Model the fold of this input.
Amino acid sequence: MKRVFSGVQPTGNLHIGNYLGALRQFVDLQEENHCVYCIVDLHSITVEQDPVVLKEHILDIASLYMAIGIDPKKSIVFVQSTVPAHAELAWVLMCNSYTGELSRMTQFKQKSRDSESAPTGLFCYPVLMAADILLYDADIVPVGNDQKQHIELTRDIALRVNNKYGETFIVPEGRFLREGARIMALDDPMSKMSKSAPNEASRISLLDAPAKIKKAIMRSTTDSDGEIRFDTKEKPGVSNLLNIYSSFSGKPVSDIEKQYAGQGYGAFKKDLVEIVVDSLTPIQERYREIRHAQELKDLLQEGTEKADVIARKTMTRVKERFGLGI
Ligand code: AMP
Ligand code: TRP
Done:
C-alpha cells in the first residue's frame, strides 16, 4: 500500500473546481492506499484571516471532507496546526531551500504582485507544503494542476536533503488529473473557477441550493454559434460546461456532443443543472448531519493523534540526520 498525502485550505466553501480537480480523487484513493488528508490552517494565515471565521471554516471543510465520502476509518483526517511537527520541519527545510527557487513560484508572484514587500510566510508557503508532504513519507500527492510547481519544489528539497544528509525523505510524486482537472469560471471561461472571485455566479459551491446552481448554469457565458462542441480555444464556455457535465455524469465528452447535436444550449444547460444538483444533494445531506455534531470534533482528534505518531517518527529521523538536539 502506498502513502497518499494531500491538503486543502480552510478558506471558505469548496466549489466544484476543488471537488472535480482534487477532492474527488481523495475518495477513490482511500480504497487502495494509506491516505492522510490535512486541513492546512497554517497555510491559510499567510494572508490575514478573521480568527472567528477561520475556526468556522476549518470545521466547515472538515465536514465537507467527510460528506464527500472520506472515511475516517480508512483515512487520517486532521487539522495541520494540531500537529506541531509541520512548523518544526518547515524550519529545517527553509534552511535547505533558496530564495532564488522560492522567488520563481508563480503563486507567490501572483499573490505578492501588488505589494513592494510581502509577508515571509507567503514566500515560504511552498516550504511548509513540502514539510506537510515529507513528514508523512508520502508516495503520492493528489492535487490540482496549479500545484505542479510546488510538488516539483518538494521533490527538489527532498533530493537535496537526501544527498546532503543521507536517505531521509521519500521523494513524492504528484498525481494530476488530466481531463477535467481545470474547471473554469462560469461567467468568464478564460479564468479558473475560484473561491475569491467577487461574482457569486462565477462558481458553484458544493453547498449551493438548487436555485443558485440553476441560475449560475443557465446564465453561464457561452457563444453564439449554438453548437455543442469541445474546443477550448474557439468555444471555452461550452467546453467548460462539457467538462463539468462529463466529470459529474461519467459520460465521455464525445458521447455528450453526439447526444446534443443540433439541439442548442437550452436543453443541454437544463440537463446539466439536473446532473449537478443530483450529484451535490447527497453531499449536502451528509454535511448537515455532521457539521454541528460532537462526532466531528472526536473524529478530528483521533486524526490528530494518528498523524502525530507518524510525524514524530519522521522528526526523530530528521533530527538525527541533522545532528539536532541532545
Ligand atoms: P484552493 O484551496 O483553492 O487552493 O484549492 C484546493 C484544491 O483544489 C487544489 O488542489 C487546487 O489545485 C484545486 N483547484 C482549485 N481551483 C480549481 C479549479 N478551478 N479547477 C480544478 N482544480 C481546482
Ligand atoms: N498549497 C495547496 C493548495 O493551495 C494546499 C496544500 C498545503 C497542500 N499543503 C499541501 C496540497 C500538501 C497537497 C499537499 O491547494
Observations:
- The pocket of tryptophan (ligand 2) is lined by residues 5-7, 9, 40, 43, 129, 132-133, 141, 143, 147, 150 (CB under 6 Å).
